[in-house]
C-alpha cells in the first residue's frame, strides 16, 4: 500500500485534501496526545480536509455556519471510519481521530482532541496554522474542516508547507473578547463567547467567526503568492 493509494481512497470517500505525516513530526505533542501515546503501534498519521462553503461567513443568521460545521463533523467521522476499514482490509490496524470531541487535559489546562487535528494536518503538509489558530490551506484558506486516522501502515510522508500566515494581526484585532492576544489562544474565553444558546431564538449556534472572516487567506492563496 502506498501513500498515493491512501490519498486516492480518501478523496474517493469525499475528502478534498489529504496528506500523510510520519511519527517524527509530533515531537512537540503534549504528553498523552502524541499519536503513539494514543495508538502505540502507530506508524503514520493520515490527515484530510473537506471544504467549508465560504458563503456561510457572509449571511445574517448563524444557522448555516453552525449547520455546515455540524454536518462536516459527521462527514469527517464517516470518512475516517471508512478509511480505517479499508486500511484494515489491507492488513494495517487503524483508528479514527474524532473530528469534534475533546477531553480535558489537566496537565495543560486545555480541552484537547486525542490528537490535534490542526497539528496533524500541518504535519501532513496540508497547510499551516495561522495566528488565529486555524489551519490555512493554499487551496481553500481556512475554509476547511479536518479529520484524521492513525495507522500501523508505514507510508511516505508529504512535504511540509511553508508558512502561509503573514503575521498581519488583523485576526487578533478583530476578536471581540481578546482571545488571541497571547500566543496561545484563550480557548475558554473564545468558546464562552462564540458557542452556546441564542436566548432569543432558543437555538444552539456558533455566534462568532470574526478571526476567520478577516484573514486575507480565508479563501486560499492567490496564484503566485505562495511557493
Ligand atoms: S471565534 Fe470569535 S471569539 Fe473566538 S477567537 Fe475568533 S474572533 Fe475571537
Ligand atoms: S489575519 Fe493575518 S495574522 Fe491572522 S491568521 Fe490571517 S494572515 Fe495570519
Question: Beta fraction of the residues?
Answer: 15-25%
Q: Tell me the series of helices and strands, N- to C-terminal.
A: HEHEHEEEHEEEHHEEH
| Shape assignment | globular
Instruction: Compute the CA-based radius of gyration.
Output: 17 Å
Tags for this model:
two-stranded antiparallel ribbon, binds iron/sulfur cluster, 227 residues, 4-stranded antiparallel β-sheet, alpha+beta, 19% strand
Structural notes for this entry:
The protein has 227 residues and is an alpha+beta fold. The protein has helices spanning 3-12, 35-38, 63-89, 117-123, 170-174, 187-194, 210-214, and strands at residues 17-22, 44-51, 94-97, 103-105, 110-112, 128-129, 135-136, 144-151, 195-198, 203-206. It has one domain (1-221). The chain contains seven helices and ten strands. The strands form four sheets. The protein has a four-stranded antiparallel β-sheet with strand order 1-2-8-3, sandwiched between helices. The longest helix is centred in the middle third of the chain and has 27 residues, at 63-89. It binds iron/sulfur cluster (2 copies). One iron/sulfur cluster (SF4) is lined by residues 174-175, 177, 179-180, 190, 193-194, 208-211. One iron/sulfur cluster binds at residues 130-132, 165-171, 214-217.
Amino acid at each position: 500500500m502506498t501513500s498515493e493509494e491512501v490519498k486516492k481512497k480518501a478523496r474517493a470517500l469525499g475528502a478534498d485534501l489529504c496528506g500523510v505525516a510520519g511519527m517524527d513530526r509530533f515531537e512537540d505533542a503534549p504528553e498523552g496526545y502524541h499519536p503513539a501515546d494514543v495508538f502505540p503501534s502507530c506508524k503514520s498519521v493520515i490527515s484530510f480536509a473537506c471544504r467549508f462553503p465560504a458563503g456561510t461567513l457572509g449571511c445574517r443568521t448563524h444557522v448555516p455556519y453552525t449547520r455546515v460545521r455540524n454536518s462536516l463533523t459527521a462527514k469527517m467521522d464517516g470518512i475516517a471510519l471508512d478509511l480505517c476499514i479499508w486500511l484494515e482490509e489491507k492488513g494495517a490496524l487503524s483508528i479514527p481521530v474524532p473530528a469534534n470531541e475533546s477531553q480535558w487535559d489537566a496537565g495543560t489546562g486545555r480541552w484537547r482532541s486525542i490528537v490535534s487535528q490542526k497539528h496533524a494536518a500541518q504535519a501532513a503538509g496540508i497547510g499551516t496554522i495561522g495566528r488565529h489558530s486555524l489551519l490555512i490551506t493554499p487551496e481553500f484558506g481556512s475554509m476547511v474542516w479536518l479529520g484524521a486516522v492513525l495507522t500501523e501502515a508505514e507510508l511516505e510522508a508529504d512535504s511540509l508547507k511553508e508558512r502561509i500566515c503573514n503575521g498581519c494581526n488583523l485576526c487578533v484585532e478583530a476578536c471581540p473578547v481578546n482571545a488571541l492576544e497571547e500566543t496561545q489562544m484563550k480557548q475558554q474565553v473564545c468558546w464562552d463567547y462564540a458557542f452556546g444558546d441564542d436566548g432569543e431564538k432558543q437555538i444552539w449556534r456558533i455566534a462568532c467567526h470574526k478571526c476567520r472572516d478577516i484573514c486575507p487567506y480565508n479563501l486560499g492563496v492567490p496564484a503566485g503568492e505562495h511557493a
